[in-house]
């Protein structure tokens, strides 16, 4: 937000799909992945009814993915007209950060539950399996495999190259949509985030292993300003590979 580099200046000048806030996703209005500091902005910009969300799955505690303090806005006095609790899921560091922010609110308002790698949560409408990421060696970071109504999504960021144990678990599954980290763009691969070369390698392995269904889609997201690539630059790179470049407010049907 303080940056004055030419890439940020150009993005602000052009606007539109070049304005990138911090990443999250909502599935069918009721399941949310991550809770970044820009969530209120997303609600206002995209006219989202966050009161519909029943389940919040958090990948890790880095500040661009979890602003636990804003969970207080889900409690009485701040939030009215709610008819169900919000169930929050994450590994130990996520649980600890959420507890520090809101304590132990009544289960009728917010429940906070620790989940382990390879554990599957049945929300009542959706099956969500936590998978190991390769991101922060000091924290158990998670990716998510999400199944609903015969369709499946892999939410694959933040991470570097996927751990082999994650590949082993995915080997017997099918995907309709893979969402992949592309933080490093055309910069050298660093290990904890993907670049373009690593994205293509993962997409190709998904295809070669028969994990990505015929007609399945791949989306790249979570771009750093340090890569110096605006939206049109990224689409010029990924369109020939039939990979979709995410932008704020994008909606995909599968």
Automatic annotation (TrEMBL):
InterPro entries per record: Metallo-B-lactamas, RibonucZ/Hydroxyglut_hydro
Domain Metallo-beta-lactamase: 47-222
One protein family per Pfam: Lactamase_B_2
Top-level taxon in the UniProt lineage: Bacteria
Catalysed reaction, written as an equation: 3',5'-cyclic UMP + H2O = UMP + H(+); 3',5'-cyclic CMP + H2O = CMP + H(+)
Function: Counteracts the endogenous Pycsar antiviral defense system. Phosphodiesterase that enables metal-dependent hydrolysis of host cyclic nucleotide Pycsar defense signals such as cCMP and cUMP.
Name of the featured protein: MBL fold metallo-hydrolase
Organism: Cohnella yongneupensis
């Amino acid at each position: 937000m303080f940056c004055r580099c030419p890439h940020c200046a150009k993005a602000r000048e052009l606007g539109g799909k070049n304005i990138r806030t911090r990443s999250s996703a909502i599935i069918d209005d009721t399941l949310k992945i991550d809770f970044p500091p820009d969530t209120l902005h997303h609600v206002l910009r995209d006219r989202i009814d966050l009161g519909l969300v029943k389940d919040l799955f958090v990948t890790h505690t880095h500040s661009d993915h979890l602003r636990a303090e804003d969970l207080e806005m889900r409690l009485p006095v701040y939030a009215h007209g709610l008819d169900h609790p919000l169930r929050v899921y994450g590994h130990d560091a996520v649980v600890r950060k959420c507890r520090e922010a809101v304590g132990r609110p009544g289960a009728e308002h917010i429940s906070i539950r620790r989940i382990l790698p390879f554990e599957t949560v049945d929300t009542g409408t959706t099956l969500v399996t936590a998978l190991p990421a390769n991101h922060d060696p000091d924290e158990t970071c998670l990716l998510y495999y999400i199944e609903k109504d015969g369709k499946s999504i892999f939410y694959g960021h933040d991470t570097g190259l996927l751990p082999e144990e994650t590949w082993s678990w995915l080997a017997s599954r099918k995907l309709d949509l893979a969402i992949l980290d592309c933080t490093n763009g055309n910069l050298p691969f660093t290990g904890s985030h993907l670049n373009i070369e690593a994205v293509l390698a993962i997409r190709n392995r998904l295809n070669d292993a028969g994990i990505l269904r015929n007609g399945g889609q791949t989306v790249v997201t979570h771009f750093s300003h340090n890569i110096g690539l605006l939206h049109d630059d990224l689409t010029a790179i990924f369109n020939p590979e039939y990979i979709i470049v995410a932008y704020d407010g994008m909606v995909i049907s599968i």
